[in-house]
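Margin note from the TA: students keep mixing up input and output lines. Inputs are the sequences; the output is the structure of the whole complex. Example:
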Amino acid sequence: MTYRTSLGVAVIGAGRMGADHVRRISEVTSGAHVAAVVDVDIDRAKTVAADVEECAAYGDIAEAMASPDIDAVLLASPGVAHEAALLTAFEHDLPVLCEKPLTPDAASALRVLEAEQRLGHRRVQVGFMRRYDHEYIKLKALLDSGELGRPLMLHNRHRNPSCPPDFTSAMLINDSVTHEMDITRWLLGQEITSVTVLRPRPSGNAPEGLADPQFVVFETDGGALVDVEIYVNARYGYQVQAEAVCEHGTARIGDRHDMLVSTGGRWGGTVTPGFVERFEEAYDREVQAWIDATRRGEVTGPSAWDGYAVAAVCEAGIRAQTEGRRVEVELADRPALYI
Amino acid sequence: MTYRTSLGVAVIGAGRMGADHVRRISEVTSGAHVAAVVDVDIDRAKTVAADVEECAAYGDIAEAMASPDIDAVLLASPGVAHEAALLTAFEHDLPVLCEKPLTPDAASALRVLEAEQRLGHRRVQVGFMRRYDHEYIKLKALLDSGELGRPLMLHNRHRNPSCPPDFTSAMLINDSVTHEMDITRWLLGQEITSVTVLRPRPSGNAPEGLADPQFVVFETDGGALVDVEIYVNARYGYQVQAEAVCEHGTARIGDRHDMLVSTGGRWGGTVTPGFVERFEEAYDREVQAWIDATRRGEVTGPSAWDGYAVAAVCEAGIRAQTEGRRVEVELADRPALYI
Amino acid sequence: MTYRTSLGVAVIGAGRMGADHVRRISEVTSGAHVAAVVDVDIDRAKTVAADVEECAAYGDIAEAMASPDIDAVLLASPGVAHEAALLTAFEHDLPVLCEKPLTPDAASALRVLEAEQRLGHRRVQVGFMRRYDHEYIKLKALLDSGELGRPLMLHNRHRNPSCPPDFTSAMLINDSVTHEMDITRWLLGQEITSVTVLRPRPSGNAPEGLADPQFVVFETDGGALVDVEIYVNARYGYQVQAEAVCEHGTARIGDRHDMLVSTGGRWGGTVTPGFVERFEEAYDREVQAWIDATRRGEVTGPSAWDGYAVAAVCEAGIRAQTEGRRVEVELADRPALYI
Amino acid sequence: MTYRTSLGVAVIGAGRMGADHVRRISEVTSGAHVAAVVDVDIDRAKTVAADVEECAAYGDIAEAMASPDIDAVLLASPGVAHEAALLTAFEHDLPVLCEKPLTPDAASALRVLEAEQRLGHRRVQVGFMRRYDHEYIKLKALLDSGELGRPLMLHNRHRNPSCPPDFTSAMLINDSVTHEMDITRWLLGQEITSVTVLRPRPSGNAPEGLADPQFVVFETDGGALVDVEIYVNARYGYQVQAEAVCEHGTARIGDRHDMLVSTGGRWGGTVTPGFVERFEEAYDREVQAWIDATRRGEVTGPSAWDGYAVAAVCEAGIRAQTEGRRVEVELADRPALYI
């Protein structure tokens, strides 16, 4: 392989996330270019495509995927549209980086799994970008080394300065805690077997009727206990922290800082204002890793199985939240393709 | 008052804790002296008393308390002996600093409350020494200031390097988590209304049969959610941490350090080796505060009510641990004396 | 401009630094490709060029620059070869990213300045990559904001785990402290007016005869005092720190960490092992910024004047080191092109 | 020895420092009581003495020292009065805790040394209280352990929020940097051989005419290089920091914090507001250590030699400041009594 070969990518979905990936592939990462932008709103696709040299705009996914200029697909449309797009990509045997969620529920995720199995090889990488964050990578390396013994507990903090106006109590589980579901499974190499959702009296910062914060507890098939504080109206900034408590020691990430200032009677630093600032580099690395693997003809990163497993934990989480009790996760057997 | 007046203290219990208090009153704090050491094992009392000038040794509590040299009592005998000693002190209307627990169970604690009420004024300070720790004091001041809004959650970590050989799963609740029960009530100014105890797969560091670590969740009558990680065989050191999550910000204590060393590829500091190093100054301040208040004719600090309330939470905790479910705390009405 | 346009870069010098830039432009950054590798050792040029698609190899700089495929030059040959290469690039009016030093001494640097002035516009960016480090950028933004008042002092630490076997006492100034010379000028927006070099008894880690560590003091034309600890055999890791002391506060960078581990009686993190790990992202951003500016037809970043000024401070530093006294920096007037 | 024996202390000087020591001995430390307060202003002595049980007030030092109630002397009068008071104490062979400075200049300090030598045994402890600070103690223990190799450099920061209105440029050396003179000698176990004083452009916070901040450099007879930043109008708080750079590692103190708060976009803690908050515990431990040693019939802690050596370094420092050059310290031979 020589360096100049460039991967032609079709970005599906020209919303905020899609446009951001177009910018990333065009200006930040190396080895790929955006060859097509696809959106059911063809005008929106054209607007985004207009900034990119020799980039086509499509209103129809199948048409775009049929183009010989397309080597790979980045799927950034709403979750409800993922299943159809993935099945179409499978027809063209195209590698896909699928933004989370894989699909909105476990049943549809299972259908994607089955389709990919029929294809006979993995084609999907799911966009759980935290796995590409330097800090989580360091933590996983430490856990995998066994230096601290077996992980017993994992404490997670997930704080957003504010949430969109239409955010619901269920979305704290489905949109926010999904990250911790994936990262728990990945860090520990274990499946989540039960979910409990506890709810303190809501913060005065939260809109009327929103159960915010929540405190979620997972049990895993390896006997670990995991807790997640999710608070989406913390006002003061964006914080994602994880502390692994192992037999012989603990490790904590999420306290990174770069400049300490002392003035006016206080010392300290700034809190990351939002998830973009916190995880922008992880997004960059995720896409670069996907490009590099795709150019090598490989599929790495979070699989469709990971997308399905998180969907199953979400369903248990919503039931746990609604019914106010511990709910066990029902998980299909893991197909050979994903082992 | 002039400075030379010295409070004559009878230290009851000549074990490790009692002897340490004798040393503290004699060598560290100001304004009091040990006038008597009392132990059912009179020889042990004599040994400890021998190092102290003009200090009597007694085998009988009532006899010691009858002495005109005794102005106050420091009760450091085993918990089962506390009720009788406290009732005797009440007969002589003597102020008592009573090491925790007040008594071993809620029923006996309630009898002490009733006796103190019959006396008509508070005489007992319970030895919840964390309330005298600089860090907890700072955290309480911040919470009380309202600067961060209402506390929503309180995350606690409590790690010991090792536990005594005869430690039981119940003692993680009764001996260790009692500190967090008191500190939760004190920091938040709220009563604990329920307890849940979760148990990950035990650490390989724990003796066979000991459920270590455990993860305990409290709900409070103010709507706060409190979690406590208790791990008594953490090997690497002693760590007590608390993080308050409030509406507009968070505050964390327990990361104090004094010297940062960089060498051999690593930077950092030492972990406090044990609870003595971590809380020695709190013990010193607790006893000094008790001496100072007693000399002023006042009773301050944790009351018998606090001792009773923690006993009630302990009983719920043990049931929660045994039955594997959330258990509500049954608490008597708070008598006027303790409001 | 559309995104696919790619800048053709000639990388001059196929040694370690040149090869690393070839990799960076090919695999990491966006918007440019390596069109030629140039080295007096043509075989070395060919070896490095072989991994890159459609990339020529040259033994002669003038020949490479004459190629229509070359839009810009990255100069990574030894410092002694820079003057000739820069003058050749000026003949072809090519933009150059010139690795530090601009040239090995102030007289030759001045000749480059004069040649660039004859050209009538800036073409050279000097590779002082610390200006692209996130932490230094934050510190400069804070100083420029005026929030802390005027900078009074700047304390710098510069520690390497080890130095090459042929490192000399002069090279601590010429190779290492040059970074602090540039960063001082950039952070403060002031010129350095004098240099003093102090030498404690050498470390036992240093090779026989090497004055390591050294402690260098600058005065600036803005009245600031700057000290630099340089220690190139610190063994334990690579540390670069800066603390600005301003009228109303202080700011410190260089303590960044990402994971805190507590085990075996100690807590802490890892020290960055070397300058690559510490500044790799700064190199990436430097080259990306140069590519982006070049594609916009601009020259940004450290100028030839900055390269000259540092060369002049180096000469004063070497005299200060040799003569054991404070030496004033002799600086030409700043030409209009660099204001 | 039994615990009740109480040392009768005469506190000389009823100003702010003296009154604070009276409070300390009466309310904080154990094993001593204030038996006399002495001040040339007898009314001031009476006022301070009035709060203390059975405490005499004197206007004359000799008279006080002649009293059989006096076992030891705490000298807290102005430095100019120290020599006479010390000589009188020697006549009565009384142990003295002498607040710094020992005397205002090297010549008078030398006379005290000679008088103490005639006495034939040490009687004086000089009040360099930083030696009793937990952090400095930890740092010294680490340096003494040899774990990091030989100390090469010591970087010190000394920042006060503000200075008294009549503070002079010389007092930054004589009053403030004296602490670093002592602590350098103590930490390294080396004598200071030269002083250089550098002066950046004064801060706008400093009163007109005051050279603030200053940057002081010591060389030692062990080949170490020591720098001290002294800034007495830093506004934002009180900070004392020290970083030892040794052959195989570095150690830093002075960053201690106890509560981390995240709110309003920032995380961090409070800066110690003043030297009382920073060093109050060191004062307490200093006096307790002096009481304990005195009761054992010993003299420990900083000696008259230490007081003299610091006076000699101060004289060199003032000359260095005035003459703008490196000045060598002239030190008498160390008498056998102080080895």
